[in-house]
Amino acid sequence: RDVYLLKRPATMLWDYFVHTKLGQGSATVQVEPKPMAEDTAVAVSLYDSANQLVATATATESEDGTFDQVAELIVPEPKLWNAEQPNLYTLVLETAGETIVDHVGLREICIKDCVVYINDAPVKFYGVNRHESDPVTGYTVGIDQMKREMQLLKAHNFNGIRTSHYPNRSEWYFMCDQEGIYMMDETNLESHGSWQKGMTVSPDWNVP
Asked: Which of 181, 171, 125 is CA-nearest to residue 145?
């Protein structure tokens, strides 16, 4: 992984969360910022793929107390995201001295009768496992290598991957969003090396 130093202002956001809700002919994007200082003003804007402003708002305390702060953006006639049409919106969060740019896909995922639905449409996954390694460069995988992998996935009509068995580089997540790939993101909790001891044989973990 790359290592870097970043100097940020006292009004920085230490985190933020994005929630999307689809409605009839519109969508709602709720942005929940987490500023370091409670009195930090956070302006939020959303742009479409043509870089046209769709909606803007300033984060305020939520009326129902669900969030400490929330900015609610209404998107008329939204272009939804799926593997065939990976439409993305650009999200901009601004505080004094700092601007953060991210991308958002408007989509809803649910499971009904053991079937996965994306935006109310049933989906069949044609996926592969992906290890972040290369036969030449080992565990060092660059952007150009990732682009070649993505081209191979799309050329062979895959629409999903599983990150076996650990998170991948952050750039890979954006590529999947940008190119239209469903991802099962895993964390490194397979307990390799502890099969003969620990949680894998402890009766404390037995399911009654």
From this structure: 171
Share of the chain above pLDDT 90, in %: 76
Contact indicator for 16, 93 with CB cutoff of 8 Å: yes
Cα–Cα distance between 55 and 26 in angstroms, integer?
12
Collect all residues with Cβ–Cβ distance below 8 Å to 106 and sequence separation of at least 6. 20, 22, 27, 29, 75, 78, 79, 80, 81, 87, 89
Amino acid present at 125: F
Torsion, CA 88, CA 93, CA 98, CA 101, rounded to 10: 0
Strands 53-58 and 13-22: unpaired
| CB-based contact 137:149 (threshold 8 Å) | no
DSSP per-residue letters across 53-111:
EEEEEE-B--TTSS-SSBEEEEEES---B-SSSB--EEEEEEETTEEEEEEE----EEE
**180 with 153: CB under 8 angstroms?**
no
Whether 146 and 140 have beta carbons less than 8 Å apart is answered as no
Helix extents (H) in the chain: 143-155, 170-179
- Span 22-43, pLDDT tens digits: 999 999 999 999 999 888 999 9
Which are the contacts of 110, defined by CB distance < 8 A and separation ≥ 6? 116, 117
Residue 1 is encoded by which pair of tokens? 């992984």
pTM for this predicted structure: 0.86
